[in-house]
Design goal:
Strand content: 5-15%
Helix content: 55-70%
Number of helices: 29
Number of strands: 23
Radius of gyration: 44 Å
Shape: elongated
Length: 998
């Protein structure tokens, strides 16, 4: 019992060490569990929401739309739980200019169901539900009316096989009809689209660089009033996928099995079948046209024949009359009157030659008959010409049918292709990667500080330890006094850390996340396994340090332990050997130098602890500086142009005319911009049609005219880069990179994510879905977006070669002769504000699809989530620095109580004692700061390399101010600790402290 009482008394006396270990454990467990828990809560809530709304696992798109046969084939695929055929239509309407929207039919099979936020779901024809973004932008409310115009209304559907890219929304031949929606609409509800969780009322500007939407808004309509048997897409749910977390690799593997089956069997067969349907429909139209023309020609020929027969009968009558009259006159001149009578009663027989001669004579003698014959001949001639022309046209159409109908292409996509899903996943993954890295530093610091504190605690009690051992207590029992002390401190600190980690930090992160994304049903959850392992990790580390400290002391005999520890033998330090310096240092300075460098364990612990904390602060500020400068570096340094304008191919000429007529452009470069994919050659099936898979990156393919290759460097800063270590990269000289016909220039953001280097082989997919293997001639410095630059000649070589055509190139040879320059890079005159306003005004023009102002992008680019996490990490690192300095300062004082008492006996005033002790701590702190600043840059580079996000490359940047802030903060913490240490020094009693231990 006395042993226990003494143990409790010893614990109470060491309350400062107890608080230090508990605080370090609290901070470490909070960092370890907090960021993880916040991301996990967001992952789980969105996964539940996706399952509740039936967000599709797989989506199938086709360049020719999907038929009932396609849907039936997908239902038969092994592993498919549900298939929903979807119909949609792009429409336009007036809302401060021309805006576009996608009319989306609400599925009847429970897939991709919008989440109702206000009002009710539409049920009747003409009713729609809109997103909150539309309500905010338009100022409309529930009950408001809206009139839209289908974009396909003005399209030419006379051809037999018009398609419109991957959505297949245009008219096609045959019995299938494209979807059509009502145009007079009434808003009855406000919904959340499960495919896009972006918060329109939050930090919408920060995600603008990752926006993949092709229209401005989405309107949801019921099946009532929707016509058309041709489907825009098919969405699928996979068996067993709902049981997996949509963000885990197990989910991706489950879905991949089904997509591979579709790619391997159904896709190829249905592509051929669908094209054959289009060919059959075209041939049927030609056959129907031929039958109808033949019928019309037969009717016309019958009419001409009837008129000619009537005309011939009339001429024959005249011929007969004239022949009879001539015979009667000849008989009257004869002697026999009876013979004359007989002759007059019989029509004379004329041979065919004589009759034909008489016909021609009669027709020639009569203007009316001549005109009638000419009309008949002319009608026959026209009919013959029409027959020949029609037959030639039909023959031509028959010959052109196979070449004019492109190969049908399917695109099998998973959730990764959804811009909203991939943005949320990449944001959370990047934050979670930080949460996995920082606790390692906290753990190392915790072990170092606990080793320092517990070693001093054990050393202080060495005589008591020797007494207990001498009295027969086992070494394990004696060591349990300190092990239980450390264990209790870890458990209490860890418990408080779990509260902060699973409640405080996640609540903070989720507030920031909800400013970016709408996540219904979000709640905080506790993970028993992860929380227990988090505490156990720190318990093991601290107990290991405590065991080491106990073993170091208890391996001595009880007699040696009960005697005072012999002071360290005197020794010279290196500075003493440098006489010119040493001789100029004062007495107290020499004492300070000896104290610092003779006690190497204290030196290492103090400098190492301070350096670790300083490094954490620098690391957090480095990430913040890196993210803050991304927009400025990209849109003001790399992009030299001020404006990018993109149009449809059909409006390219009108767009250039419009921009030229405004007189704002000082120089420009016409290019072709297409959305495509870049895949590492050999990483997967190049014809799979999947996007966002492993080893794949969405890109912006920029083709440059052959005559203006040298002008690209005036619009974009071309700098070759080579990958470096720890977040660094070697950047070549500006202008040393040239675009040529030997390969493509790949953006650094894409190259870094895929491990692409100069000379690598990559597989490119252009805007038509055609794939080709290209050589990377260089990697260009690029931070935001994934641009791939290619010359006009090399583009033609890639996508118009025999190999490209074998991949079912949808371009005809006629179309591939010249590219349509559908975009313009331009430098503008005027201020940033005027350039932004001009870009906004261009978007209202009907010939412009998109106009982007670099000035606006540079000013609006934000990454609030990363900034919030960095602020949290810096705050925790600052707290850790404060605890570390407090622990080290108190340990330093407890080790030198007799020294401080001696100084007081020698006549040192309290202030002089403060200065004597604090000067050493400040020097050690400065040494730790000096070491921690470059260490923080090093760790920051390593962490930014872990932040692998789509279309982003983090070029590590640490501003001088960040180094100053980190150094000043650490020094401020050191000064703050002095305020706690000075009273301890004042309370040292020289008499009791200098009593002999004997």
């Amino acid at each position: 019992m006395a042993f226990v009482k003494d143990m409790l008394r010893m614990w109470a006396h060491s309350w400062k060490r107890f608080i230090s270990i508990a605080m370090i454990t609290l901070l470490g467990v909070a960092v370890l569990t907090g960021i993880y828990a916040g991301c996990r809560d967001a992952f789980r809530s969105t996964d539940r929401f996706f399952d509740a709304q039936g967000l599709h696992d797989v989506q199938v798109l086709s360049t020719a739309g999907l038929s009932n046969g396609d849907i039936a084939a997908l239902r038969k695929v092994n592993g498919v739980a549900k298939v929903q055929a979807e119909r949609s239509q792009e429409v336009t309407f007036d809302l401060d200019g021309r805006k576009s929207a996608t009319m989306q039919e609400i599925g009847t099979n429970g897939i991709d169901q919008p989440y109702l936020q206000e009002g009710r779901m539409p049920k009747k024809a003409g009713e729609i539900a809109v997103t909150r973004k539309f309500i905010r932008d338009s100022g409309k409310r529930i009950g408001s009316r809206l009139t839209v115009t289908p974009e396909s209304a003005s399209s030419d559907t006379s051809d037999t096989n018009d398609t419109n890219g991957a959505d297949g929304t245009n008219e096609t031949n045959g019995t299938d009809e494209a979807p059509s929606f009502p145009t007079k609409l009434t808003i009855v509800g406000v919904v959340l689209d499960p495919q896009n969780l972006s918060n329109p009322d939050g930090y919408s500007a920060m995600t603008s660089f990752r926006s993949t939407a092709t229209t401005d808004y989405t309107f949801f309509a019921p099946s009532d009033g929707v016509t058309g048997t041709l489907y825009t897409s098919a969405t699928l749910l996979v068996k067993g996928a709902a049981a997996e977390s949509t963000f885990d690799e197990s989910y991706e593997n489950t879905v991949k099995q089904v997509t591979d089956r579709i790619d391997g069997t159904v896709k190829t067969d249905r592509q051929k079948a669908r094209r054959q349907e289009l060919l059959d429909a075209g041939n049927k139209k030609i056959a129907d046209a031929r039958a109808e023309a033949d019928k019309k020609f037969a009717d016309a020929q019958s009419r001409i024949d009837a008129n000619r027969q009537q005309f011939n009968q009339q001429v024959d009558q005249i011929v007969s009359m004239q022949a009879g009259a001539a015979a009667a006159g000849a008989a009257a001149n004869g002697a026999n009157a009876g013979a004359a009578a007989a002759a007059g009663a019989t029509t004379p027989q004329l041979d065919e030659t004589t009759r034909e001669t008489m016909r021609e004579t009669i027709i020639a003698a009569s203007p009316e008959l001549t005109q009638a014959k000419q009309q008949l001949d002319q009608a026959q001639s026209q009919l013959n010409e029409q027959k020949a022309s029609t037959e030639h046209t039909l023959k031509t159409k028959e010959n052109e049918l196979k070449t004019s109908i492109p190969q049908v292409r399917w695109y099998v996509q998973d959730r990764q292709s959804l811009g909203g899903f991939s943005a949320l996943k990449s944001d959370l993954d990047s934050i979670q990667s930080l949460g996995n890295a920082f606790p390692i530093v906290f753990l190392l610091v915790a072990v170092m500080m606990s080793l320092t504190a517990m070693a001093r605690m054990v050393e202080e009690d060495r005589s008591l330890i020797g007494t207990y051992v001498g009295l027969g207590y086992g070494r394990l029992a004696v060591a349990s006094r300190y092990l239980l002390f450390a264990l209790l401190a870890c458990l209490i600190g860890g418990g408080l850390g779990l509260i902060a980690g699973f409640l405080g930090i996640p609540a903070f992160l989720l507030v920031v996340l909800q400013g970016m994304y709408v996540m219904p049903g979000l709640r905080l959850e506790y993970d028993w396994l992860y929380g227990s392992l988090g505490i156990a990790l720190f318990v093991v580390g601290v107990l290991a340090a405590t065991i080491y400290a106990c073993v170091q002391e208890m391996r001595q005999t009880p007699a040696a332990l009960m005697r005072p520890k012999a002071p360290r033998a005197g020794s010279r330090i290196l500075l003493e050997r440098i006489r010119p310096v040493w001789n100029r240092i004062g007495f107290l300075g020499k004492v300070t130098a000896r104290n610092i460098f003779r006690f190497k364990s204290r030196l290492i612990m103090t400098v190492g602890g301070v350096a670790g904390c300083t490094a954490l602060i620098v690391c957090g500020l480095a990430i913040n500086d890196t993210v803050a400068d991304l927009g400025i570096k990209q849109y003001r340094d790399i992009y030299q142009y001020d404006l990018m304008v993109v149009s449809d191919d059909s409006d390219a000429s009108a767009m250039r005319t419009k921009v030229a007529s405004d007189g704002r452009v000082t120089s420009s470069l016409d290019v072709r911009i297409e959305s495509g994919d870049l895949t590492v050659a050999g990483s997967g099936d190049g014809d799979s049609g999947k996007a966002g898979g492993s080893g794949s990156e969405s890109i912006q393919l920029v083709a440059v005219p052959e005559k203006h290759l040298s002008d690209l460097g005036e619009m974009v800063t071309l700098q070759p880069v080579s990958s470096g270590m720890l977040g660094t990269s070697g950047v070549g000289k500006t202008g040393s990179l040239k675009l040529d016909d030997d390969g493509v220039i790949v953006a650094q953001s894409a190259a870094s994510a895929l491990g692409v280097k100069t000379g690598s082989k990559v597989r490119l997919t252009n805007g038509d879905g055609v794939r080709a293997t290209a050589k990377v001639s260089a990697v260009n410095r690029n931070l935001i977006g994934s641009d791939v630059y290619v010359s006009e000649t090399y583009y033609a070589k890639l996508f118009d070669s025999k190999d490209a055509k074998n991949t079912k190139n949808s371009k005809s040879s006629e179309d591939s002769e010249a590219l349509t320059w559908n975009a313009m890079l331009a430098k503008l005159s005027g201020s940033d504000t005027s350039q932004t306003d001009y870009a906004e005004s261009l978007e209202e023009d009907s010939s412009v699809m998109k106009a982007v102002s670099c000035a606006h992008m540079a000013d609006s680019f934000k990454f609030d989530l990363m900034g919030a996490v960095v602020a949290l990490i810096v705050a925790l690192a600052g707290g850790l620095a404060l605890v570390v300095l407090f622990t080290l300062a108190n340990t330093n004082v407890s080790e030198r109580v007799r020294e401080m008492a001696t100084l007081k006996v020698l006549g040192f005033f309290d202030r002089e004692v403060h200065h004597y002790v604090n000067r050493e701590m400040m020097i050690l702190t400065v040494m730790g700061v000096i070491l921690g600043l470059p260490l923080g840059r090093l760790v920051g580079g390593m962490l930014t390399m872990a932040l692998n996000m789509p279309s982003l490359y983090f070029e590590v940047e640490v501003k001088p101010l960040s180094y100053v802030i980190a150094a000043v903060a650490t020094m401020a913490f050191a000064l703050l600790v002095q305020l706690f240490v000075n009273p301890v020094l004042d309370r040292i009693d020289p008499i009791s402290s200098l009593k002999s231990v004997e």
